[in-house]
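Dear colleagues,

As part of the handover before I leave the project, I'm documenting each prediction I ran so the next person doesn't have to rerun anything. This entry is a single chain, and its sequence is reproduced below.
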Amino acid sequence: MNRLRTLFTEDRISKELLESTSKYIIFSTTSIYLVFHFILSLFYPRVFSPGLWVCTIIFLVTFVGTLFLLRFTYILAQVFWLVGVSVTIMSAFYLFNRVEILFLFAVLPFMAISTIGLTGTIIVEILILSLTLILPETGWFSTLPEGYPFAIIFVCIFAGVFGWGISNNLNSAIENASFHYYEARKRLQETRQHRAEISRMLKEQNQINYQLKQMTRMLEQARSRAEEAREDRDRFAMAVSHELRSPLNFIIGFSDLMVNAPETYAPLDDWPAGLYDDTQEIFKSSKHLLDLINDILDMGKMDARQMPLFRERVDPKILLDEIEDLVAAPIIQKGLHFEIHTEDNMPYIFVDRTRIRQVLLNVITNSMRFTKQGKISVDARMHGMDEVEIVIQDNGPGIAPEDIERIFYEFRQAGQENWSREKGSGLGLPISKRFVELHGGRITIESEIQKGTIIHIFLPVMEPIGSTQEVRADLAEGGEQRVASTFAKGQVNLILCYSADLSKAKQIGMLLFDYEVIPVTNMIELRQMIEKYYPSAIIVDDAFVNENQISQLMEKLPYQIPVIRFLYSEVLEQSLVLPGGVYRYLVKPVSRDTLIQTIQSIGANTNDLLVIDDDPSMVRLFTQAIKSYNGVIESIEKINFYPAYSGKEALDIISRQNVDAILLDLDLPDIHGTQVLTEIRKMSVHQKTPVIIISASDFGEEQKTIHPGYFQIINKKPYNPIELRVIFNSALEVLKPDFREGKDNPH
């Protein structure tokens, strides 16, 4: 250890070690001297007294002075100590004139090597060498025998070298130990600081986690409240709209009779002045209210994800020709020019024809409403390789940039804060945007004030997975290729549904909104589809396969694919497709023209008509609406009406009277309409009698849940615990027990 360097560093531990060593040497030397003084004074008082006391006093002064200085400065204390010991030795030599005393100088380098290091020892050796060589010349050491000065020098050098040799390894070990000790202390301090920092961070983290949990809990509560509010809103809108349909059916039905067949009540000339005009306004307003209710129902269904899309292959040109037939006449009557242009050789689009027709009608009708002069044009063309773009352009007043986004909000129109009845409900464009997005498409608007508006509608081309010709080239326009999928573009979850009954495959497809479901009707086609499309799963209707076919299918699968087997426990009374024998499904309110057209489409031999509804006013309305065509349609005049106000009454009538057609309301007070239909079908005479269902519920709202007799998932590979947990949790979440007594549960 370099003691002098240590003294000028901030190493407190090393300084304390040096001071401790110095004190040990000082106290040890002093103790030895005092023992020596005691022995000499006791046994040789005449030889060493009183000179010995002089040396002792000098030594004690050196001892006390060194300890005093050691409290303030280490170097000065060591110098004082070495000088004091030297003076003591010189005084003893002078007083006793014994040359052997000078050999005590060898103690000085020995002590110096331990207290001030090698550098200090060399300085001490030089001073002793100088003292031994120079002082004899001054007469102080004239009594020294010849050779003694060199002997003293040799002994001192030997003592210094010997002390250095002994202490060097020890000093190195001490230095290393001190260094590592110091580093350990330093690391310990850093560790404590880091631990304190980590503790602080953990405390902050705990606080943040607590705040996060609180915020998450609040967010969940807010989300739950928002979800409940949304569901309440949807239920309210659908319930109110549903409840409004029945009274609205009376308003529209009777006002329709008054406006279009006023002679049903009295000759028009006998009507009070202004009554016919007021009736026309009632009829017009009720039609507007019906449109508004239907729009609200559509919005509610889309928000609740209860709007299945019945997709099919659609030729854009044929679709636009249908639109032209519907809107060309009113546009031209308004004095506007109307034109439609379609690119040649356009591919099929994969859409719900009814919904996309509604979108185009909404947009074109909106353009017609706001365009006073000029033209409205529709242009269909390809956009890239996978989209068809339909562009509707008008010369209307245009839309301000800040209002473009607003027109997609419910009950909002451009340039006003609230919707107005004269210009529309403010739901047409929002519904159109939702329908387009449900198809995986998009709708954009370009507009400039006083220059008109351009609306771009982008729809995915047919085919989401492969080319149209590659999959089913035999399908003509309108042929079904997928069933009830919510997304058409970019769909990766494809499922094959095997059933010889295509209607059941359709039902499954309509339930699985988030999947592309391809119906397959035979086992050979199923194997081909598996090798071609690599589906995510296979759904098999067990009513049309046996165990041998399933075993062969599992053995020949090209990869690990789950096969889901299920069996219907009963024939559905009403499914997502029309039940057997149901000719039409009409939703209230039913217009007079729609009702007559439906009756006419049955055939000219409709002579006896059974009308089943629990509301006598509704029965009267239907009867009056049909009778209003007496004299206009010959086949109507001979119809006999049989009213029934309950299910039992209807079954009683039909058991006694043969009828040619039936108008059936589903909501009957005693027996549900579907059960009435089932009982009618049990009668051999009426198995093929056309039944027209008239209900206030949209088609699909009354559907029963499919109850499979059993449900089985087969997979070649073993299930891991995570997969089993997810499967069981999903099943238990959906399947709930029914604790009602007397419930028929065959499975």
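The radius of gyration is 54 Å. Residues 59 and 88 are 6 Å apart (CA to CA).

All the best with the project,
I.
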